[in-house]
Design a protein that fits this description.
homodimer, 334 residues, Ribosomal Protein L15, Chain: K, domain 2, Four Helix Bundle (Hemerythrin (Met), subunit A), globular
């Protein structure tokens, strides 16, 4: 499994013949091109065109985050797969209202099921609110049936929005730490520590899915839930819905409950609260560990890493689109 | 309408406060950020992260092309105009049989008209076969009316195939050189010198159109004539039909008739005949000259280069697909 490279220091990404390296005050560090899946840039890193060319040839995506840890953009190399038929089918599933609705319904059902799974894990472990969590687990069953009644993507998105709102309310029970109150979901900027972690984690999740999409025949521009406006990639946002609860939310609970991240890892910035560089480093290190963790895969009957799980999910979506097999989203077992 | 910036020289893209500039040997050139939609980089251009951040904030995409002019990748800001709607429309015109047929008909009519135009140019100039050429010019009128009777893309392709066969037969009259007989169209490998030149020229034409497609919102994977096989880009093949007669065939006639390329520029290779390296160099140099040549543009009322002509053609196709204006293929005047 190829690795992800995270760069927090400042320097320059360069190329010499057929090798890539990062040059900083600490010296020259070579990048194992054949073993690198993607690069996350957090530091002040300049890049030469020759670097980008070789990275593109090696199919490496480069994701940029600004000084505050906000995602700014991605260098997406030219498609290496040239599957006109997949893109046609992908477009057809967007243009055809029924087909789009079916996919939107599956994504949202998958997302709610994953949130429910997180709640089930904490149902007995949470210090408070066991009753509330249990009640919400029950309620989520109904939410799923509401989905079959939704006749537009907007109606479905509303169901998802309500479910997520209820779900976030449980965070205070699960975390139970006065330093990390949920209050309400706030973005750009997040207004408290917990929201800062959610925003940062979600943006990492979106780019990880984007990196994996690049490795398939799918086109990130055509999504089904999030495609109402064409101002950003959208398929990665759809697929991230399935993975945010297990990849991001559970990681946040772990980081806080094990006191791995605390008050000192946050800063007041731009009228909001953001993770400091050291906070981001800890977050990324633990997320990376988690991405490499293997979980038992029900159908494959073997262990696969989380990163691999994302790729498998994309293959399932591809099969759905090609009419080979109806997409069933991944559901974690614990 | 925001503008596109093309950078051919080498240098560095930098930021100072809220302005972006390009620094090269020639000095510092400021980029009007509010007025720039995207930047195309052809030179050896390095970029600072602070530049990318501000470009991202202004939703400016940055497209990279390598030393040979091939597209390598794009920096997509978090929010950008990703033209998902163009690809959807492009797919719709493929999926909808009538829409696809209409476009296929236009491409083939355009291709036949261009072949006819080449014949007209040589009608008086050819040493032999004036009668045959004149007869074929007449026959091509009928071919165009046959197009309205074609009810499948395959039928239309057959009309085009017959027209092209007749057209190639005229090559011997136009060239009239025993070293360069057409015989019959042979590919992979070409079996004689003329076919070697046609194959080489056509492949250059396909990649030139592909390069230009990357400068538009169109997706090269979805074509209308050539999309039956999914192993290659196809929109460029469609558009090349319009340009092959003037860009490739007329160049070949010129190279042979002016004795710029001769027997010694060919080699027996892989059971066929191919241009030698020096032959290819001469061909490319002359093609490149031709691409930079400006021709009078009927509608624009000004001179544009052939390369620009291709781009304009793509914009017309984009307009057709977006339902703004029915596509009318370029027709050379001489």
């Amino acid at each position: 499994m190829k690795k992800t490279l995270y760069i927090f220091t400042s320097g320059e990404l360069k190329r010499k013949d057929n090798s890539l390296y990062f040059e900083s005050e600490a010296g020259r560090k070579y990048i194992p091109v054949e073993d690198t899946n993607d690069i996350y840039i957090f530091g002040e890193v300049d890049v030469t065109k020759r670097f980008l060319e070789f990275a593109a040839a090696k199919e490496i995506c480069i994701h940029y985050f600004n000084h505050y840890g906000y995602y700014t953009g991605t260098f997406y190399p030219r498609e290496h797969y040239n599957a006109g038929h997949v893109i046609l089918k992908q477009a057809e599933h967007y243009i055809d209202k029924e087909k789009r609705l079916e996919l939107a319904r599956i994504f949202i059902a998958g997302s709610i099921a994953q949130m429910r799974q997180v709640l089930k894990y904490y149902q007995t472990r949470a210090k408070n609110g066991k009753e509330e969590i249990t009640a919400l687990i029950e309620k989520f069953k109904e939410r799923t049936s509401e989905l079959s009644e939704g006749h537009t993507v907007e109606e479905l998105m509303a169901v998802e929005g309500h479910a997520r709102e209820d779900y976030y309310k449980m965070f205070d029970y699960i975390i139970n730490d006065p330093d990390f109150r949920f209050e309400k979901r706030s973005k750009r900027p997040p207004l408290n520590r917990l929201n800062a972690m959610i925003s940062f984690g979600n943006s990492l999740c979106y780019t990880m899915v984007l990196s994996e999409i690049y490795k398939t025949y799918l086109d990130p521009r055509i999504g089904y839930l999030h495609a109402t406006n064409f101002r950003r990639f959208s398929l990665n946002l759809d697929v991230a819905e399935i993975f945010k609860p297990i990849m991001v939310d559970r990681l946040i609970f772990m980081l806080i409950n094990k006191k791995m991240i605390g008050k000192k890892d946050f800063d007041k910035q731009m009228n909001g609260i953001l993770l400091t560089e050291s906070g981001r480093k800890k977050f990324v290190a633990e997320l990376d560990k988690r991405m490499q963790t293997t979980v038992n895969h029900r159908h494959l009957g073997k262990s696969v890493s989380y990163r691999r799980l994302i790729r498998l999910e994309l293959y399932k979506i591809q099969k759905h689109i090609l009419g080979e097999k109806t997409y069933e989203p991944y559901r974690s077992m614990w």
